[in-house]
Amino acid sequence: MTIADFVGTWYFRGDKKAPCYIRLHGPKLEVTDEHHNTFPAHVEGGETLVTENPLNFGLRGTLSSDAKRIAWVNGESWER
């Protein structure tokens, strides 16, 4: 997996009315959640996205092998 596998539009719990975004700005990732909050993030180990969200610093999400789902450690998910 590469950083490019994370980039794009995602949907909170698969709901098309709750889009989320992961964008690449130069070498940095930016994550926008379903509430329109935007935070920097980075990838660890090629498959784990780590947000730098001051509300819950270090929230981790693991990308599925088919790159269609991010399973967050808080029990939530983003899907394509």
Name some characteristics of this structure.
single chain, 80 residues, mainly beta, 8-stranded antiparallel β-barrel
Description:
The protein is mainly β and 80 residues long. The chain has one domain. 0% of the residues lie in helices and 49% in strands. It is built from no helices and eight strands. Strands 1-2-3-4-5-6-7-8 form an eight-stranded antiparallel barrel. The radius of gyration is 11 Å and the shape is globular. The mean pLDDT is 91.
Unreliable segments (pLDDT under 50, ≥5 consecutive)? none
* First-to-last CA distance: 16 Å
Q: Given the helix and strand composition, which structural class is it?
A: mainly beta
Share of helical residues: under 10%
Largest sheet: 8 strands, antiparallel, barrel
Strand order of the largest sheet: 1-2-3-4-5-6-7-8
What is the number of domains? 1
Mean pLDDT: 91
Number of strands: 8
Order of helices and strands: EEEEEEEE
Number of helical regions: 0
Global geometry: globular
Measured by DSSP, the beta-strand proportion falls in over 45%
Q: Indicate the radius of gyration in whole angstroms.
A: 11 Å
Q: How would the blueprint of this fold be written?
A:
Blueprint (H helix, E strand, L loop, with lengths): L7 E5 L6 E7 L2 E5 L5 E7 L3 E4 L8 E4 L5 E4 L4 E3 L1
Antiparallel strand pairs: 1-2, 1-8, 2-3, 3-4, 4-5, 5-6, 6-7, 7-8
Task: Give a brief rundown of this model.
This protein has strands at residues 8-12, 19-25, 28-32, 38-44, 48-51, 60-63, 69-72, 77-79.
